[in-house]
Amino acid sequence: MFKIALVPGDGIGPDIIKQAVKVLKAIERPGEIEFEFTEVLAGGTAIDKTGHPLPKESLDICLASDAVLLGAVGGPKWDNLPGDIRPEQALLGLRKGLGVFANLRPAVLFPQLKKASPLKEEIIGEGIDVLVVRELIGGIYFGQRGRDGDRAYDTECYSVPEVERIARVAFDTARKRRRKVTSVDKANILESSRLWRETITHVAEQYPDVELNHMYVDNCAMQLIRNPHQFDVIVTSNMFGDILSDEASMLVGSLGMLPSASLGDTKRGFYEPIHGSAPDIAGQDKANPLATILSVAMMLRYSFDLTHQADMIERAVAQVLEDGYRTADIMENDMKLVGTDKMGDLVVEYLNRI
Ligand code: NAD
Ligand code: IPM
Ligand code: MN
């Protein structure tokens, strides 16, 4: 029995989590693979109900689970609250509380979505497969911040052990892929980036079979569009990883296609699509649930060792796309437009056929 904490959150969060649960239920086999779901309050809805974005009980349930699946948090309703009681604090509190320092964000182009990518066909070539490894519980997100009269500040701080552990994740993962790591920083300006670069270079000595190069973040933002094939694994800080992964998601068609897995020192993982609560389409049955469904596949693979079932979900998604079903964000001429709920049903239908 695998215990899964579900954090639907705000905006499109509850709708996409509903689709992910359908998929997990389709994977269940009585006596063999069973899931126990516990719904957890976090984000704006938690502020409304309890006055706090992440009630202690919510974090405790997540800590006692084998995996956590989050939809999204935040929205205009809570945008003017003070920083420490904004919905987004729930996300930071969960990531930090669970100790998940390594955020894996794979940008893989399903061949069926070549036309949804804004890149020219000749740039896409055989396809795109870039993995962003984002440091998740350090850097400017967790540095000192504050206000001093008419000034405000946020500080970025990284220690050698923090960089070493994310570097090891990047190099270990690269070994299972195309053996290339690009470390992205702003070492021409930031002292924290200079420490980052030195530390990555040092860790690389233990991985002579993996090629390492360093790149400034502004150049990387451009190179991703000019020639994404030069990248295999990108390892970078919390803030740069946030920005570059949204950019990478568009290369493969849509922000609604990018899943993520956040891992620490244990098998317990934190899984979420990389997008937010999409207030502009919330409650309209328009959101693409595939990023969340693909995050479920990552959960099965990384936290539960259910590799075959993870592959099945990815194959079912590919088949749904192959048969021309599209949510609005990836819609093209001659394809069949479906809503969030129908897309979830289709993935389940194809899963049942495999
Ligand atoms: P967003 O990711 O919510 O939306 C950006 C754009 O992408 C919007 O046009 C939206 O409609 C679209 N989009 C996002 N997900 C989609 C999906 N699954 N299917 C189709 N279209 C999708 O980013 P934003 O608008 O900058 O932020 C909105 C709120 O979400 C903010 O409160 C922000 O803090 C929060 N946020 C939360 C998370 C999270 O919970 N992990 C991540 C990012 C942003
Ligand atoms: C993400 C989001 C979050 C982040 C916000 C909502 C705190 O943008 O998961 O990418 O910046 O990490
Ligand atoms: Mn983001």
TrEMBL record:
Domain of life where this protein originates: Bacteria
Pathway connected to this protein: Amino-acid biosynthesis; L-leucine biosynthesis; L-leucine from 3-methyl-2-oxobutanoate: step 3/4
Protein location: Cytoplasm
Biological-process GO terms, alphabetical: L-leucine biosynthetic process
EC annotation from Swiss-Prot or TrEMBL: 1.1.1.85
A Pfam short name: Iso_dh
UniProt keywords, alphabetically: Amino-acid biosynthesis, Branched-chain amino acid biosynthesis, Cytoplasm, Leucine biosynthesis, Magnesium, Manganese, Metal-binding, NAD, Oxidoreductase
Molecular-function GO terms, alphabetical: 3-isopropylmalate dehydrogenase activity; magnesium ion binding; NAD binding
Residues of the Isopropylmalate dehydrogenase-like domain: 3-347
GO CC aspect terms: cytosol
Residues noted as binding NAD(+) in the record, renumbered to the chain: 75-88, 276-288
Residues the entry annotates as binding substrate: R95, R105, R134, D218
Site keyed Important for catalysis: positions: Y141, K186
PROSITE patterns hit by this protein: IDH_IMDH
Note describing how the cofactor binds: Binds 1 Mg(2+) or Mn(2+) ion per subunit.
Binding positions for Mg(2+) per the UniProt entry: D218, D242, D246
Function of the molecule: Catalyzes the oxidation of 3-carboxy-2-hydroxy-4-methylpentanoate (3-isopropylmalate) to 3-carboxy-4-methyl-2-oxopentanoate. The product decarboxylates to 4-methyl-2 oxopentanoate.
HAMAP family linked to this entry: LeuB_type1
Family: Belongs to the isocitrate and isopropylmalate dehydrogenases family. LeuB type 1 subfamily.
Description of how the protein assembles with itself and partners: Homodimer.
Protein's UniProt name: 3-isopropylmalate dehydrogenase
